[in-house]
UniProtKB/TrEMBL annotation:
One of its GO terms (biological process) is L-proline biosynthetic process. It comes from the Bacteria. It holds the Pfam family P5CR_dimer. The keyword Amino-acid biosynthesis applies. HAMAP family: P5C_reductase (MF_01925). This is Pyrroline-5-carboxylate reductase. It catalyses: L-proline + NAD(+) = (S)-1-pyrroline-5-carboxylate + NADH + 2 H(+); L-proline + NADP(+) = (S)-1-pyrroline-5-carboxylate + NADPH + 2 H(+). Residues 29-125 form the Pyrroline-5-carboxylate reductase catalytic N-terminal domain. The lineage of its organism: Bacteria, Bacillati, Actinomycetota, Actinomycetes, Mycobacteriales. Belongs to the pyrroline-5-carboxylate reductase family. It is an enzyme of class 1 (oxidoreductase).
Length: 317
């Protein structure tokens, strides 16, 4: 199963996508392994993008969750990784890091029935492409992507890095798929843990701020409903202004901050309580957690026949 023995002869590429300026038609066959939060975000984003996709299948083991996804999105949902992979040109891995090896073992056994070589695209934090390449058949193309949940509304920020055997066409295909659900930045894989700490986990930081701002509003006498609407629309408007104006966040902040005014009073408190230090430490912790996941999988993966995933259960997550 190991790829140690060099590069596999590359399957002949047959063009299955037609790309027109501003009107991309996709005919890819896509499998998403893992119907959890990010798997669903990808599924929803791809469907919402309106791009025709020839075949879209999701692998989800929990019966209730599988029924929910099939009902909500009208896609085929199976429990069989190999079956889903065999009909797919692009296989997205959206499982937790600890489940990667188990899934790869199934993927490695999947036959290649398509006209084009199958690409494994991992959305998993922390695990390097090298690890996938070692478990998939020799020379199998792997691409690593770090998306974020705004994929649900086609506003993802995704970073893409190529593994050793992914060629330009396969990287372009991944980039185009991810562009249909948001923006894409191509980065060297060495930057992936940093990317994860900023944009992968990033939405949670802003949601935390909205939560805290909502609580603060309630403390000042607003109803929770009022405070949440005020905080949420402010986040949306500020994000839109930052994205559309081309003005730096420093200047945009200065434009809100009237001399000796309310904003200056608030910002002084943020600084006094160390918002920059807290943010820096938070990002470092996120990047470290990614590296730890990689180490954990490496250690467990090296244990012959070792249990790679905890027992699966139908307990709600
Ligand atoms: N959430 C996020 O914002 C982001 C997450 N990611 C990455 O996405 C991955 C998934 O995270 P998230 O969606 O949050 O987690 P969830 O727990 O919501 O989803 C994990 C999914 O993996 C499935 N799974 C577990 N083991 C197996 C297996 N052996 N075979 C098939 N499927 C399996 C689970 O299925 P079951 O329901 O049966 O347990 C579940 O659907 C992680 O690796 C994370 O690093 C990346 C970027 C952002
Ligand atoms: O929390 C996590 O591990 C995943 C990766 C990035 C966002 N969520």
């Amino acid at each position: 199963m190991s790829a140690a023995g060099g590069r596999r002869p590359r399957a002949r590429h047959v063009q299955t996508s037609f790309h027109r300026r501003g009107n991309t038609i996709m005919t890819e066959r896509i499998a998403i392994i893992g119907g959890g939060k990010i798997g669903e975000a990808l599924l929803a984003g791809l469907i919402r993008s309106g791009k025709p996709i020839k075949d879209l299948v999701v692998v989800e083991a929990l019966t209730e969750r599988a029924a929910e996804l099939a009902g909500d999105y009208g896609v085929r949902v199976t429990q069989d990784v190999r079956d889903a992979a065999e009909s797919a040109q692009v296989v997205f891995l959206a499982v937790k890091p600890d489940a990667v090896e188990t899934v790869l073992r199934e993927l490695a056994r999947a036959e290649d029935h398509g006209e084009t070589e199958r690409i494994t695209v991992s959305l998993v934090a922390g695990i390097p492409t090298q690890r996938y390449e070692a478990l998939l058949p020799a020379g199998a193309p792997v691409v690593r992507v770090m998306p974020n949940t705004p994929m649900l509304v086609n506003e993802a920020m995704s970073a893409v890095s190529a593994g050793r055997y992914a060629d330009t066409e396969q990287i372009d295909l991944t980039v185009r798929l991810m562009e249909s659900v948001g923006r894409v930045m191509v980065v060297p894989e060495t930057q992936m843990d940093a990317v994860t700490a900023i944009s992968g986990s990033g939405p949670a930081y802003f949601f935390l701020l909205v939560e805290a701002l909502t609580d603060a509003g309630v403390g000042l006498g607003l109803t929770r409903v009022q405070a949440l609407e005020l905080a949420s629309q402010t986040l949306k408007g500020a994000g839109q202004l930052l994205a559309d104006s081309g003005v730096s966040p420093v200047d945009l902040r200065a434009a809100v901050t009237s001399p000796a005014g309310t904003t200056a009073a608030a910002l002084a408190e943020f600084e006094r309580y160390g918002i920059r230090h807290a943010t820096n430490e938070a990002a470092r912790a996120a990047a470290d957690a990614g590296r730890q996941a990689a180490r954990r999988v490496d250690v467990e993966g090296s244990r012959p026949g070792g249990a790679l995933v905890p027992e699966r259960s139908d307990e709600p997550r």
